[in-house]
């Protein structure tokens, strides 16, 4: 990691007051997934890594301000990158990738870097980590199992079919199968009758 990236990492880490479903640990996993996907798909890492680092920087502010975190995050990233004299020709691509990464933003990722960031962010919502994050999210909002399983059906089970890159589709197949197996087991346990002598 070069000094420039290390400084970005420190800046982003400082923005996360606490952990949680969208804490700094999520950002770290998304960065690693971006690196993994880019090694197979090709991407401009000088765009992809800053976009991955900044993609959720405004997440802690979203509930307070009501501003979508992808919009505020893009603004924060642009301001920071200009302040450190990051190459101007890459800033617009970073801002686009941040704006387009969110599942529900309605903005289509138009670059390879934006597609990889979207895929990486969605992959981190699937599989074992996605299950853990979903239950953390439910707990953060004072909700229980029913809310969490609702989120699986409303969003997570749809993510496999939204991947842009071949490499992400391969990972998504495995993670999707894990989600389905988990839900079947959970449904079985919730619906199971407890013997009267227990």
Any descriptors?
mainly alpha; globular; single chain; HD/PDEase_dom; Hypothetical protein af1432; HD_domain; 198 residues
CATH fold field value: Hypothetical protein af1432
Summarize the helix and strand pattern as letters. Answer: HHHHHHHHHH
Query: What kind of sheet is the major sheet?
Result: none
Highest CATH level, the class: Mainly Alpha
- End-to-end Cα distance, whole Å, is 56 Å
Strand content: under 5%
Poorly predicted regions: none
- Nearest-integer average pLDDT: 91
Radius of gyration: 18 Å
- Looking at the overall shape, the CATH architecture is Orthogonal Bundle
Structural class: mainly alpha
How does the overall form come out from the CA principal axes?
Answer: globular
Overall helicity: 55-70%
Assembly status: single chain
Number of strand segments? 0
Number of contiguous helices: 10
Tell me the domain tally: 1
The CATH H-level superfamily is: Hypothetical protein af1432
Protein name: Phosphohydrolase
Keywords: Hydrolase
GO molecular function, one term: hydrolase activity
Organism: Methanoculleus sediminis
């Amino acid at each position: 990691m070069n000094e420039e990236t290390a400084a970005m990492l420190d800046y982003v880490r400082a923005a996360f007051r606490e952990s949680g479903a969208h804490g700094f640990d999520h950002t770290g996993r998304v960065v690693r997934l971006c690196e993994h996907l880019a090694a197979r798909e090709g991407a401009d890492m000088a765009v992809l890594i800053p976009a991955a680092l900044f993609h959720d920087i405004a997440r802690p502010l979203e509930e307070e301000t009501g501003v979508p975190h992808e919009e505020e995050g893009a603004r924060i990233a642009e301001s920071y990158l200009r302040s450190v004299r990051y190459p101007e020709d890459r800033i617009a691509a970073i801002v686009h990738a941040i704006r387009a990464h969110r599942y529900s933003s309605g903005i289509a990722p138009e670059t390879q870097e934006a597609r990889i960031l979207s895929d990486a962010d969605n992959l981190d919502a699937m599989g074992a980590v996605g299950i853990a994050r979903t239950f953390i999210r439910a707990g953060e909002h004072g909700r229980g199992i029913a809310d969490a399983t609702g989120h699986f059906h409303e969003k997570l089970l749809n993510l496999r079919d939204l991947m842009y890159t071949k490499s992400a589709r391969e990972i998504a197949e495995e993670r999707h199968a894990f989600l389905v197996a988990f839900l079947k087991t959970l449904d079985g346990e919730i619906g199971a009758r407890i013997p009267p002598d227990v």
